[in-house]
Design a protein that fits this description.
- The protein is α+β, with helices and mostly antiparallel strands.
- The chain contains four helices and six strands, in the order H-E-H-E-E-E-H-E-E-H.
- The strands form three sheets. It has a two-stranded parallel sheet with strand order 1-2.
- Helix 2 links the parallel strand 1 and strand 2.
- The longest helix is centred in the N-terminal third of the chain and has 12 residues.
Length: 147
């Protein structure tokens, strides 16, 4: 299964920006993106796809923001995005894969459920498609359906 992991987006950004070709850094950019989390990497990638010369800055020693992992003692914590809605053949991720020319190298797998939340007063399963998710949310919380 393909997830929207930061190394994947970072690699696409590097590939499109020319950083992997050994080009030396320049003093002139069309755009500077502050932060190399998922949003910053996505912004940089989209700007690079549009032909802009982009510099992405990150204060941490690795890119990805909340799409990474960390360790505390003997315990490892994965804070990464594991699944995403809208990643199918008709979603934004598929568009991005086509634009970068790698769509044929990746298989996107639709999952039936995004997650299940179990609390003392609630047991709710989020379906894997947008239409099913909206229907399930409206059924569970009908007073919120107009919102």
């Amino acid at each position: 299964m393909l997830t929207a992991s930061s190394p994947f987006i970072f690699y696409l950004f590097l590939l499109l920006s020319g950083a992997t070709s050994g080009a030396s850094p320049s003093q002139s950019y069309d755009a500077i993106v502050v932060g190399a989390g998922l949003g910053g990497l996505s912004a940089g990638l989209n700007l690079a796809l549009g032909g802009q010369k982009v510099l992405v800055l990150e204060q941490h020693h690795k890119v990805g923001g909340c799409t990474s992992s960390f360790s505390r003692g003997e315990f490892n914590f994965d804070v990464a995005l594991h699944e995403m809605a809208g990643g199918g053949a008709d979603g934004r991720l598929a568009d991005l894969l086509r634009q970068t020319g790698i769509a044929e190298k990746v298989e996107l797998i639709r999952i039936p459920r995004l997650y299940r939340a179990i609390f003392p007063q609630l047991d709710f399963t989020m379906p894997g498609t947008l239409d099913e998710a909206i229907q399930a949310l409206e059924q569970r919380w009908p007073q919120e359906s107009d919102a």
